[in-house]
Design goal:
Blueprint: H1 2-27, H2 36-42
């Protein structure tokens, strides 16, 4: 029973820290574009890369 006097306030503090981290990330734009990175993978460029100047062609 005595452990609850420690664990309940500690869990409330952990929840408030998690909420603060979430809202800080949300305010900084962390979750603005959730679809773009997934679509960027599908738009793969299959053309061969150009050789660097001074490098012989493959």
């Amino acid at each position: 029973m005595e452990a609850l006097y420690l664990l309940i306030p500690l869990s409330v503090v952990v929840v408030f820290i998690a909420l603060w981290v979430y809202f800080t990330a949300s305010d900084s734009g962390q979750f603005d574009d959730l679809v773009g990175p997934g679509l960027r993978v599908l738009q793969d460029d299959d053309t061969p890369a150009k050789p660097a100047p001074g490098e012989p062609p493959a």
